[in-house]
Amino acid sequence: MDKKLLFHSKVARNIFFLFILCALIPLCVLAYYAFSQVTDNLYSQAQEQLRQTSKASGMSIVERLQLLEAELDMIGNSLQTGDEEMLAYSLHLHNDKLRAEFNNLVLTTDNGGAKTLLGSMSVLPTLSEDEQQYLLSGKALVITRPEAGSRTSVFMVKALGQTPASHDLLFCDVRPEYLWGEGFLSLVTELMVLDQSNNILFSSFPEYLPLDEMKSAIGENPSTGRFTWRYGNDSYEASYWTIFMRPQFNTNWLLVQSQSSADILAPISNFRKFFLLSGLLTFFIVILLSLRQIRRSLIPIELLREATKKIAGKDFNSRVIIGTNDEFEELGASFNEMATHLGDHLQNMSILNQIGIALSEERSNDRLLELILFAAKTMTSADGCALYTLTGDKQLRLSVINIDSIHLVMNRDGNMVIPLFDDGGKPNTLTAVAFSALKDATVNIPDMYHATSFDFSHIRDFDRTIGYRSHSLLSVPVKNHENEIVGVLQLINAQERTSRTVVPFSDEDQRLLETLASQAAVALSKNQLIDDFRKLFDSLVELIATAIDEKSPYTGDHCRRVPELTMMLAKAVTGRKEGIFKDFNLSEEEMHELKVAALLHDCGKVTTPVHIVDKATRLEAIFDRIHLIDAHFEILRRDAQIAFLQKQISLFPMVSGNKSSAAEDGVQIVLAREELEKTLEQIDKDQKLVRVCNSGETVMNDDLKQRIENIALKYRWINAECKEEPLISLAEAYTLTSAKGTLTPEERAVINQHIKTTIKMLGSLHYPKSLRNVPIFAETHHEHMDGTGYPMGLTREQIPLQGRIIAIADIFESLTAKDRPYKKGLTLIEALQMLSSMKDNGHIDPDLFDLFVEEKVYLRYAEKYLSHTQVDENLLCEMPNSVSPPLQQLSPNCHNLNRSTPCPLHRVGQL
């Protein structure tokens, strides 16, 4: 602070010294009084806290002894019942707890016998007659016995039973750590406990025991009180309290709690230092504030100088307030007006910058135009603004209007329409806003009521309707990236910034609005390109999904139904306002990202052979090879018939030349016929068995596998090259003996490969930020919550929620689809039962499945895609919110998951 400026005035010096004098004396008096009061209160609080601490410690000891008595009662009850096994189990169960409470635990009986229940107690304490008599009351007895050295043991004795005739006693040696161990001692206080014979039971300060000071204090007040003792150079404040335990434990203990006087006085010392520093700090702050106030009051020119510096530093919000009623006040007003004009100019520049940033981020074209409109109104200080948008039928529709002075705000009103052409096709150049759109020109009218170049009758009518008076007008066309007019920005009634009177729009206002319109054209072009690229990407995604569905005649629309069901479930999750999903919310972009992932979840199927995906039977490949095997059986059947006929012909007399054995030949023919019939019957049975095993619904057990292998080894047929071949080849036998379903392990691996191909295909694409999670969502829809899924074996915590949503949609669509050749479409109840089983087995997200049922997502899907034969309306009416067990009650025919018909789930993960 400039001393010359401060002390140049005599009035300033007098005010300064008078202020210091008037503030210093009251401050010193107040400080002394406050210090005395706070010091006394702190000392009294420390003494009271020490007394309360000693009482609290004593009560804690009594509570712990009561807990020990309860333990002995529990053990005594077990002993009285005579159940040795239950006692041993109880002691074993609470072994750690009992060892933390007792060193030893011994039971003595009437006949003088002793049984050690815990630890080992070599010598039991001897009880006096009074102590024995006290035990007959049924209460626990606490006694202390000095041990070797300075240790004193604490024993608790409890009689079993409540009759004088009972002499069974429980002796326990209490662990000192339990009575005053962990959580009992304080870092700033010392604890001493003495029994009624002044034996030291515990001392946290073993170096010294103030017995003399203690006896002197107890002599004055035996129950509770305070005393002071010293050790070396340290002084201690002590509070003692007699723990009255005689009514319950037949003894009294004395508890002494001590604290160093230095610790007690530490807060007072700290307060003294703090008080002194705060007093000095307050004194200097008062001095600084007084100097500042004097300076601001007596030197207005200093204010102007500082404000001018701020203006030079581009702080145009700086203002000075001078109320001296002289030339300085006029100078301050002129300065403020200059700062206002400079601030307005800076504000316009800042708004242009902010608008440029906002235009680069805004995605909605309508919102872009509104943003520019209101920014233009602010920059030009216009009273009103309007936005006209060009419609498809070549008309300008009033979309937005805002007039501040009459508080008029209308969004997308749509009532006022100005045609660009009349009925004869002639351009409407008489209307200013239409002229701007048709001629791509700016229109600046100082006063619309006196203008003759344009027809403003529609504006006059509008003014009469809303009670307004339009004067100046400024219209600027807005174009897109293809230089096409998409709308017109219009400003109404420019206002002088200080007086708010209506004035014409200046050339600067016109340039500002044209600049904003140019920025709008760039932003509109950017949004149009982004929208075009997004539509192109969505079309490519749809193309891939269509290609996958069209590849197989049996999986049509799978890649379209799964995304739709995914969106149904995602909307249900997002709309949840309570429970585990209450904080989960997907934005519009995130919903689109999830839909793209659902559309591409099976894109790897483009490389999967169709004959494996559509394999309806075990022997089907490019065609069903069961027909070849049927032909082989037919050949065997005909070979047997031919052999029979040949043998029959050979037995005719004309052929054999033997006329004496006609009866014998007849017998041979009959036997041959019987053998033929048995052979044909066995062939028919074996053929039927092969056809049954060809169905994926047949579960191949060990017996069926052995029978197929026997058939493969048993039958041989002659091919066109006269070579003998087995009826069923090794490859066909291997395919027929697949344990479940129509696929062999190798074919199943080929189908499972589609998810790896999906990962590879999706990983090779470059995604925008809004779609960066598409590969993660798509590649995890075959993972299980328990980590048994594929291809990565992820657990629930590692699978994103969107991937779990796609998984449920994929499975439910596959279960209910009725166009699969290897299975029939399940009914709604069967599909929900199957999903419920998968939830219990840790395959799908249980919370998502419960939401799927509670929000009836399955029902909305069923109403749109499932046939009436798959939906039992009566059962749906009775469907509870949770299907996990009621489904079995509603559909008893489908709850048996171990039925002989194979579960369709063996192909769910592949589709």
Explain the overall architecture:
The structure is a single chain. It contains 32 helices and 20 strands. By secondary structure, the chain is α+β, with helices and mostly antiparallel strands. The protein has five domains: 3-42 and 266-302; 60-262, no CATH class; 362-530, Beta-Lactamase; 552-608 and 746-908, Hypothetical protein af1432; 626-742. The strands form four sheets. Strands 11, 12, 13, 14, 15, 16, 17 and 18 form an eight-stranded antiparallel β-sheet that branches. A five-stranded antiparallel β-sheet has the order 2-1-5-4-3, with helices on both faces. Strands 7-6-10-9-8 form a five-stranded antiparallel β-sheet.
Secondary-structure blueprint of this entry?
Blueprint: H1 3-7, H2 10-81, H3 84-93, H4 95-101, E1 102-108, E2 114-118, H5 129-135, E3 141-146, E4 152-159, E5 169-174, H6 176-180, E6 189-194, E7 200-203, H7 211-220, E8 224-231, E9 234-244, H8 246-249, E10 252-260, H9 261-298, H10 300-312, H11 327-361, H12 365-380, E11 382-390, E12 395-403, E13 408-411, E14 417-419, H13 432-439, E15 443-445, H14 457-466, E16 473-479, E17 485-495, E18 502-503, H15 507-551, H16 558-574, H17 588-599, H18 610-613, H19 626-650, H20 653-656, H21 662-694, H22 702-714, E19 716-718, E20 724-726, H23 730-736, H24 745-763, H25 774-779, H26 801-816, H27 828-840, H28 846-854, H29 857-865, H30 873-878, H31 886-890, H32 905-908
